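Students often ask why inverse folding is considered easier than folding. One informal answer: many sequences map to the same fold, so there is more than one right answer. In these notes we will look at a single instance of the problem. The structure comes first.
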């Protein structure tokens, strides 16, 4: 494979055949191939994997799960019909993960073949070594990229070998390095113009940003978390800040002040018990005062001498009309502070459009209105901690 220009694909249909074998005496690991489809802004459009064997109305088809790697030939295949792919699909990533426990350490050999399919004839155009090694659990194998204007030599699609190891049991667990690899093949200006969809969910990672769709005036932000400690009291709040980052208790929506113009809090959940979101904050953009340019959504642990190391499965999600989840951002469990800056809305310079950003920055303070907590939020919004720019 040409690492500089990728491999040109001339066929309308291609097939990835993946195979692997495990060391004798070691417990087989359930490896899964996944095809993840991205649009021109780098948002996930669809995916074909063991639990959803078809994507984009059959344009991408997965052969099904092989849990042991036994037998000759391919263990799993992914077949792609470029002719029937929607035009907005720009990149297809092939990812391999160790799904149910175990790591790549049990894998003795692994390979993939890229084949062009013409009727009953299959022609191998590239052999790709799968670097399934060590304690990792995910591999970004290859990218299929739609060429601009037909590309070099007139080939509408090209295959680029990536071979980047990552960690995760599903592609969503390693979206950070996966999206980084995809973004390198997209127009930077378009990547910067990601707009949330009213039909699909944007699975976000730290630092991702996307515009709120035009005409969408009301959303709710649901925060959730799990903790084994019933005495751990977490509180979600929204700080409403001016463009220069000025913050004050008077412009903070929390369990003690449930509503301000454009922002409403659902009330305090002391334990985090039960299904669904633990706390919700609703936003009506048209009612937010024009001098407010940032809405910062934060969660603090009110209980003394505690931190987010005692909390797991934290997330924030944006829900729109008909309970559609526009965006979801799962936070990692490595935050050691007692406050956490989940996400923020920022008003565009023109004043009418809003952008949503996944932040994931640690904060000091047991309450949103504590001076040290506000100072940290202002620093993040200003780029001092976490690199926010608006």
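Output (designed amino acids):
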């Amino acid at each position: 494979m040409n690492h500089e220009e990728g491999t040109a694909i001339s066929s309308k249909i291609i097939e990835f055949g993946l195979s692997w074998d495990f060391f004798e005496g070691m417990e087989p690991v359930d490896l899964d191939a996944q095809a993840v489809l991205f649009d021109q802004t780098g948002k996930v459009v669809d995916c074909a994997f063991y639990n959803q064997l078809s994507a984009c109305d059959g344009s991408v088809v997965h052969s099904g799960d092989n849990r042991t790697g036994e037998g000759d030939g391919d263990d799993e295949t992914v077949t792609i019909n470029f002719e029937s792919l929607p035009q907005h699909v720009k990149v297809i990533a092939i990812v391999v993960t160790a799904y149910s426990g175990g790591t790549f350490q049990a894998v003795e050999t692994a390979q993939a073949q890229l084949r062009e399919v013409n009727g009953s004839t299959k022609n191998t155009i590239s052999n790709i070594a799968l670097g399934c090694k060590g304690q990792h659990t995910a591999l970004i194998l290859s990218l299929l990229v739609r060429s601009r204007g037909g590309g070099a030599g007139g080939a509408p699609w090209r295959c680029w070998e990536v071979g980047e190891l990552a960690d995760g049991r599903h592609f969503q667990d390693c979206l950070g390095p996966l999206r980084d690899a995809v973004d390198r093949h997209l127009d930077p200006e378009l990547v910067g113009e990601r707009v949330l969809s009213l039909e699909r969910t944007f699975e976000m990672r730290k630092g991702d940003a996307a515009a709120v769709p035009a005409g969408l005036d009301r959303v709710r932000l649901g925060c959730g978390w799990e903790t084994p400690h019933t005495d751990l009291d977490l509180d979600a709040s929204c700080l409403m800040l001016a463009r220069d980052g000025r913050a004050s208790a008077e412009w903070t929506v929390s369990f003690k002040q449930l509503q301000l113009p454009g922002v409403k809090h659902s009330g305090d959940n002391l334990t985090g018990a039960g299904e669904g979101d633990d706390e919700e904050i609703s936003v009506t953009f048209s009612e937010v005062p024009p001098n407010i340019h940032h809405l910062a959504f934060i969660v603090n642990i009110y209980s003394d001498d505690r931190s987010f190391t005692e909390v797991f499965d934290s997330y924030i999600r944006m829900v729109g009309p008909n309970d559609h989840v526009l965006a979801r951002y799962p936070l990692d469990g490595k935050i050691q502070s007692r406050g956490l800056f989940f996400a923020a809305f920022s008003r565009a310079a023109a004043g009418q459009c809003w952008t949503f950003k996944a932040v994931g920055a640690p904060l000091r303070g047991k309450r949103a209105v504590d001076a040290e907590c506000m100072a940290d939020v202002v620093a993040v919004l200003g780029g001092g901690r976490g690199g926010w720019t608006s």
